[in-house]
Amino acid sequence: MTKGIKDLQPARLEQALAARGLTKGQLASLVGVAAPTVTKWCKGDQAPEADTFERLASVLNVQPEWLTRAMLRPVSKPLYRSNASALKAARAKLEARTEWTQEIAVLLGDYVDYPKVNLPVRTFQDPEQISDADIEAAAEECRALWQLGRGPVQNLALAAESAGVLVIREETEISAIEGLSSWSELLGRPIVFLSADKANAFRSRFDLAHEIGHLILHKHIPRAEERDRYNQMEKQAHRFAGALLLPAETFASEVRVPTNLDNLLILKQRWGASVAAMMMRLHALGLLSDDDKLTLFKRRSARWGSKAEPGDEKWEPEEPRLLRRTVELLVNEGILPVESIARHLGYSPRDVEKLCGLRVNYFTAPAQVVELATLRSARSSDPAERRASASVADVVSFQKFKK
């Protein structure tokens, strides 16, 4: 290896390339080096000189020190809510940003206790083992564990985060992928990444319910590469989403039979589910025949098109708040100074804002905190001891992440 910044971690560089959607050739052009040089960096065969290393970090918009940390253990292979046109590079980008979220959560977790994971446990090893009855039972158990009752779910994102699911909602510019879910062994909890590009609250709720279905039903099933197996798992997650948002007995009792689009539009605002999702649910429950479902979908397409529906604008998309409130808590309690958070995490302020759900320019004007996570120091029963502990809190060194 040639002389240079020998602490550069090739895996970090590869991850940053994926997260930024850059090729090695594009990075070489931006940094001002030959394309083969970047390839050598990624292989660990060569190290950049100090000034080149600074340019590299600047182009990738990360802290130079971040590029020298040892990689954390990756999350499980994500399950995607996507169509067949999703490119490998697009998947790699979202996987990398999920890894970034895991690292942020791990580092912030040195100061707080996140909600305990509270999900139904299933041990299916193959999608062929999962019946429709299994899916309905899992959705019912999930509602019971989360104390959602039998009516509409008021805020699914809040319910999921309260059950220990880490949710990210970010504009990705990747229309082919609506979401993904994976498990973090380091955090001991699942991560759901939702695309915010369509800004449709009803579709976003369904996407989240769909990913929760994957987390419960398919936790022990490897990511499917064969199309038939993938489609089978997608259908199972779809059915779970419908069962979670529209419980059989309660929802069915409110549907006028035979139903029509206008009746379903009224129920849409009450249940927080699209007309299309309700039609699929009625079909799954045997309340719509194949022919009736096809007829209704044709009418829906003729009246409104295939994407948007009337009333879509009446609901605001549910925003994740666990990481946002964690950052706000640490800032407001004086545990971490706002101006140092992004630097210590290793990412740009904008990346931290997006992945943590903070508002734009948060780090120049932090918001008021509403507590969700619990400070570790709050475990003490003595208020004076808690205050003293908070006042002398130190920033955790990142040396442990280096080789």
Automatic annotation (TrEMBL):
<comment type="similarity">
    <text>Belongs to the short-chain fatty acyl-CoA assimilation regulator (ScfR) family.</text>
</comment>
<dbReference type="InterPro" id="IPR052345">
    <property type="entry name" value="Rad_response_metalloprotease"/>
</dbReference>
<dbReference type="InterPro" id="IPR010359">
    <property type="entry name" value="IrrE_HExxH"/>
</dbReference>
<protein>
    <recommendedName>
        <fullName>HTH cro/C1-type domain-containing protein</fullName>
    </recommendedName>
</protein>
<feature type="domain" description="HTH cro/C1-type">
    <location>
        <begin position="13"/>
        <end position="67"/>
    </location>
</feature>
<dbReference type="Pfam" id="PF01381">
    <property type="entry name" value="HTH_3"/>
</dbReference>
<dbReference type="Pfam" id="PF06114">
    <property type="entry name" value="Peptidase_M78"/>
</dbReference>
<dbReference type="InterPro" id="IPR001387">
    <property type="entry name" value="Cro/C1-type_HTH"/>
</dbReference>
<dbReference type="GO" id="GO:0003677">
    <property type="term" value="F:DNA binding"/>
</dbReference>
<dbReference type="InterPro" id="IPR010982">
    <property type="entry name" value="Lambda_DNA-bd_dom_sf"/>
</dbReference>
